[in-house]
Amino acid sequence: MVRQVDFRYGKEEYIKKLDRSLFERSEVLAEQTEKLTEAFKLVSNAHFNGQKALKKAKAQSKSFESEEVLRFSHLISKNFSVASPHFWQQGDPMRPYPTELHFRISTFGNADGIVSFLFIL
Q1: Is the pTM of this model over 0.70?
Q2: Whole-angstrom distance between the N-terminal and C-terminal Cα of the chain?
Q3: What own/partner pairs with CB < 8 Å and gap ≥ 24 does 80-88 have?
Q4: Which residues have CB under 8 Å from 43's CB, separation 6+?
Q5: How far apart are CA 35 and CA 29, in angstroms?
Q6: What are the pLDDT digits (tens) for 9-63?
Q7: What's the sign of the alpha-carbon dihedral 121, 94, 103, 71?
Q8: Which string of DSSP letters, residue by residue, matches 47-100?
């Protein structure tokens, strides 16, 4: 009988030890779940802000200034030795680059691209 009591007491101690271990691990899991939830919120906010910024950038990229195109064309011509037409002279009112009017009626300046170019012709 004493053996049975000792055996049961040993089992009870083992069960209590397992319960404590289970409780500690549950606390760790709760902490990790909380951290994971917070990380998910941060990632989803970053994703949302990134999508918003991307949409804004795409909307802004459709409109650009002709001065910016001229600045880049100047950089290209300066760096890659592109020349103006042979008949152009300094002081000539006709510019060796497209003016605002030329830019607006060109396919490059239109949002529709080639389709609007075909209607101009």
Answers
A1: no
A2: 109
A3: none
A4: none
A5: 10
A6: 788 899 999 999 999 999 999 999 999 999 999 999 999 999 998 888 887 766 6
A7: positive
A8: HHHHHHHHHHHHHHHT---HHHHHHHHHHHHHHHT----TT--TT-SS-SS--H
